[in-house]
Structure formats: structure tokens, C-alpha cells
Design brief:
Alpha-Beta Plaits; alpha+beta; single chain; globular; about 100 residues; YdhR; about 30% strand
Length: about 100
């Protein structure tokens, strides 16, 4: 079973290419998180929102990452962090070409 973690929060920036350059090292480190399969980074510069959608091997690894990441974001002064964990329905996701394979 795989689990999807959805996280979003208010952020003043950076966004776009500046975000990609500024957070490249962080993105690399996320690959080493226990149970993490992949992450899709999300952003909405107009609404000043950012976040991500992650796929984890277990609910426990998703929960542990959410707790660690929320603490990290809070240390950066980010508040009102929203995180939700969902069980993935693999058969339906496969019909719609969902990227559910393991790394």
C-alpha cells in the first residue's frame, strides 16, 4: 500500500526558477527521507502558496515526514501548514496513469 501526503502553506517566495535554484539542495535531501518514493513541488505565486504532493511507502513514513517537515517550516517562520495523508487506490490510479510505481 502507498500513501499520498499533501502539504501546502502560505509563502512570500521565491517562486519559479528562483525557487528551483534556491531549493535544489533541499530537493536532493528529500530523496533520502525514509519511505519517500517521489515528490511533486507545487506553487501559486499569485496566491503566495507553496507545497508539495508526496508518495510514501507507508502511512508511518508519511506521518513522520509531515511532522519533521512541519517543524522545519515552522523554524523558517511559516505558519498555518496544512498536511493530509491519503491511502492510494492503486487500481483506479493505474487506469489514469498515476505515477504510483516505486523508485
Amino acid at each position: 500500500m502507498t500513501y499520498l501526503l499533501q502539504v501546502d502553506f502560505q509563502m512570500d517566495g521565491p517562486f519559479g526558477e528562483e525557487m528551483a535554484k534556491g531549493f535544489a539542495e533541499l530537493a536532493q535531501s528529500i530523496n533520502d527521507e525514509p519511505g519517500m518514493i517521489w515528490k511533486i513541488w507545487t506553487e501559486d505565486a499569485a496566491a503566495k502558496e507553496a507545497g508539495g504532493v508526496y508518495l510514501f511507502e507507508t502511512k508511518e513514513s508519511a506521518q513522520a515526514y509531515l511532522e519533521m517537515h512541519s517543524a522545519r517550516l515552522t523554524s523558517f517562520g511559516i505558519q498555518a501548514i496544512r498536511g493530509k495523508i491519503f491511502e492510494v487506490n492503486v487500481p483506479l490510479s493505474m487506469i489514469n496513469s498515476g505515477p504510483i510505481q516505486n523508485k
